[in-house]
Design brief:
This protein is an alpha+beta fold. It contains ten helices and 27 strands. The longest helix has 15 residues.
Length: 422
């Protein structure tokens, strides 16, 4: 019999009882930040549930992990705590459990209308790494900039390539972002261009939220790496392509990336995603032993990007991709990150890199979709090479049951507003 909630959850809701993603919110302006779980059109306030003594299991019973302003303490407790909390919450919200269902006073305190709350960055992010794990994205970028003869460097097929990003500029949907300024390629004998980026792009990504870390000098075994990953968020790694192209040789991304990275407010757990795991692509050549997994798994998560030009009533779908296209898995990314002894910590964020599919309709950024501006997109009569002032960019990810969604809206004449939509 299918698990159902005592709450009236619409069949098309992004947040059924099978999902239960974690986030951090304020129920009203000026109130304290506290952890919550999304269920239908409500947020379940976990601080209320904790103070009522309903988390009474052997791992988190008596813990103050849900009385914190972020999820880091809970993340650091590991998978036994995550499973226990999820099972308790699922039971409390189920249709056949009277404890919350029949307690009107507790229900009123614990369940807050989602359209009334302010969502916050759910974790204190100490470090942020962005990988480059889509073979299709790597091939397209290499072809654009180096030609089709050898688009992907040999090393890419032997290790998950990544760069260390800027944690301070990771923001939640709803945060304003200023169009970045920087240098671009010079024209002829002129000095380099300096000014606002003229090639502002989105990147369709997801990111893993790290749970328990590892001690400095102690790598994480690739076959145990899943126990160090709490869940996934959608991520938009904004990119100023003109600034990036001029600065990235020889050390890689800097100002073209560090001006802002947006994540969705809800973290969907790996436990919730487990029913949608699938085989990862075959890797050739076979990975070195420390990256060779007993079972190599991805997740079947459909991804979509829409753009809505300023003043327009309707948005246009510009790409559809899928998380399962990633060549390097989440667990390989984490294992490689730590193989040199690098220590990860609870709340660290590991971006996947742009998730592109094999077809032009599944490319994950405008750089690929417009082939660096050579093939403009048509959006209900409007034309786009890169993002323009006032554009709205909407990311959506879903499985058959679960859904994450983030809406990001741009007002580039002065600022870019990043909004969350349910």
């Amino acid at each position: 019999m299918a698990l159902t909630s005592f709450l009236d959850v619409h069949p098309d809701s992004h947040f059924p009882i099978q999902n239960l993603p974690f986030g951090v919110f304020r129920p009203e302006p000026g109130s304290d930040a506290r952890p919550g779980v999304a269920i239908g059109e409500y947020v379940l306030d976990l601080s209320v549930i904790a103070l009522a003594g309903l988390f009474d299991g052997p791992v988190i019973g008596g813990s103050d992990c849900f009385l914190q302003p972020n999820l880091n303490k809970f993340l650091g407790m590991g998978r036994p705590a995550w499973k226990e909390a999820r099972a308790t919450i699922q039971k409390l919200l189920s249709s056949n459990e009277p404890l919350l269902r029949d307690n009107a006073n507790l229900r009123q305190k614990a369940l807050v209308a989602m359209n009334k709350v302010q969502m916050l960055v759910p974790i204190a992010i100490g470090d942020y790494t962005d990988f480059f794990s889509s073979m299709h994205h790597a091939k397209n970028c290499g072809t654009i900039f180096r030609g089709p003869e050898n688009p992907i460097p040999t090393n890419w097929f032997h290790l998950p390539i990544a760069y260390h990003g800027r944690a301070s500029s990771i923001v939640i949907s709803g945060t304003n972002i200023i169009r970045p300024r920087g240098q671009g390629y010079p024209t002829g004998n002129s000095p380099p261009y300096f000014g606002p980026s003229t090639k502002l792009d989105f990147e369709l990504e997801m990111a893993a939220v790290v749970g328990p870390g590892n001690e400095l000098g102690e790598p994480v075994d690739v076959n145990k790496a899943a126990d160090h990953i709490f869940g996934l968020v959608l991520m938009n790694d904004w990119s100023a392509r003109d600034i990036q192209a001029w600065e990235y040789v020889p050390l890689g991304p800097f100002l073209g990336k560090s001006f802002g990275t947006t994540i969705s407010p809800w973290i969907v757990t790996l436990d919730a995603l487990e029913p949608f795991s699938c085989d990862a692509p075959k890797q050739d050549p076979h990975p070195l032993p420390y990256l060779a997994e007993k079972v190599s798994r991805n997740y079947d998560i459909s991804l979509e990007v829409q753009i809505k030009p300023a003043g327009e009533e309707h948005s246009s779908v510009i790409t559809r991709s899928n998380f399962k296209h990633l060549y390097w898995t989440l667990t390989q990314q984490l294992a490689h990150h730590t193989v040199n002894g690098c220590n990860l910590r609870p709340g660290d964020l590991l971006g996947t890199g742009t998730i592109s599919g094999p077809d032009p309709e599944s490319f994950g950024c405008l750089l690929e979709l417009t082939w660096n501006g050579q093939k403009p997109l048509s959006l209900n009569g409007a034309s786009r090479k890169f993002l323009e002032d006032g554009d709205e960019v909407i990311f959506t990810g879903w499985t058959k049951v679960l859904c994450l969604k983030t809406l990001t809206a741009f007002h580039f004449s002065k600022r870019a507003s990043l909004l969350f939509a349910v």
